[in-house]
Design a protein that fits this description.
It is built from two helices and no strands. It has helices at 6-14, 20-36.
């Protein structure tokens, strides 16, 4: 997953966006469901399993 950007940190501290940990948990759950349903695009930049890093999904 991507690291938290400076703008994201500032907005979170000001209270405009929720905590990034909550966001990561939501994204991880979304990715799990997409992989389980075989609808994962495998090119998103929010994937909890870093698809671009060469992870294999053959056993999921």
């Amino acid at each position: 997953m991507r690291k938290e950007s400076l703008i994201h940190k500032i907005l979170r501290k000001l209270g405009f966006i929720k905590d990034i940990e909550d966001d990561r948990e939501f994204k991880m759950e979304m990715c799990k469901r997409a992989i389980k349903a075989n609808v994962c695009p495998e090119d998103c930049d929010i994937c909890a399993w870093d698809v671009k890093g060469g992870a294999s999904y053959e056993n999921h």
